[in-house]
Structure formats: structure tokens, C-alpha cells
Amino acid sequence: MKQCIIFFILIISYNLSCQTLKKGFSYLSDIDATIQSDLRYLTSNNFIGNPIDGYQKKKVILSTPAAEALKKVQSKLVSFGLSLKIFDAYRPQQAVDHFVRWAKMVNDTLMKRTYYPDVKKKDLFTLDYIAFKSGHTRGSTVDLTIIDIITKEELDMGSSYDFFGEASHPFYKNLSKNQRSNRLLLRNLMLEAGFTPYLKEWWHFTLKNEPYPNTYFNFFIE
Hints:
By secondary structure, the protein is of the alpha+beta class.
């Protein structure tokens, strides 16, 4: 009897520890396990310099239609020895709230030199780099780049991910021919797959017919 009780408790504990995704969402690895990821907000390697609220495991979560659209992009890249790499996908509202709290702390400029050297922190809201709501929270927006499958090195896009400045605008003028070509490759593939690009960030795309255009979710990434 005692063994049965222990077994029952273990089953309950296991079930409680397992993430049950919201209906309509998928782990990207279940759709295409070849797509790489570098979830910056799970680590301290981001514009704040600390892990962000809501990111608990290295799991890429997206609405299922967005994940399936990325699979189409990946299938084209793989044939050329390339791969997508995801920086961020679904982002819980608590993470956005973390960004907002940080942005209001104008004296916290730990990562300024790397991520926003030419932008005053007090201007991050007015310049639309930080917002109270994010398309990521609706589950169909993704930040990504392209890497070489063998070396794992990112293609040169002319600016780093999450760099706050004009150099990150998709059609920034001071790019080399190679950088411009790499940005256009990513952009064109994402457009073909049904994504809409963002005017200020070469890495940022939202599924055009996103399934939850007015819903901002807040479940953990785990």
C-alpha cells in the first residue's frame, strides 16, 4: 500500500512538472528539430544583462502555424548548407513587463556599450525599442538569423541581434554587398513563408495571418 501511495505521488509530481501548452501552440523542435536556437533572454547575454522573467528552459514556443511556416523556410536553407537560428519567439507578458521596468531605471546602463551606444536610455520608449505590449506575446512573432550548418557561425548581417540603432534597420545604407545580400536572403525567405518584416529590425518577423492577433499570453517558457 505504501509503495502504491509513493508511486501515485510521483505520477502527480511528474504531471505537475510537465508543461501543457496552450491550444494552438507548439514546441518548434516538435515541428522541425533541425532549427537552431540561442535564446538570449534565458541568459545574461542580452540588452539588460540578466535573465528575463518567464524564460525557464531552452524551449522555442510558437503558434503552430508560425512554427510550420518556419519549417518551410528551413527546408530551403538546409539544401544550401544553412539553417535558421532563433533568438526569441513566444515571449510571455511578464518578460515584456520586465523590459518596461528596466527601461524606467534610467541609471541601469550595464549593457549600453554593446546594445545601444548611440541611444539615450530615456528615449527607448519614444523610439519604439521598448513597448508595453509586444507581438511576440501573441505567439507568432520571431527573432532569427541564418547560420552555417557546419561552422554554426552566423551570416554577417551588418549589426548584432537586438542592437538599438539605425544599423539594424533592414535597409540601412552603410552595409557591404555581402551584408545586404544576407539580409535580403532572410527577408525574402520569410516573406515567401507568409511573414511580415518589421521596419526597424532586420531579425524581426510576424506571421501575416497570425491566429491570435489580439491576445497577449503569459504562460512560462518551460
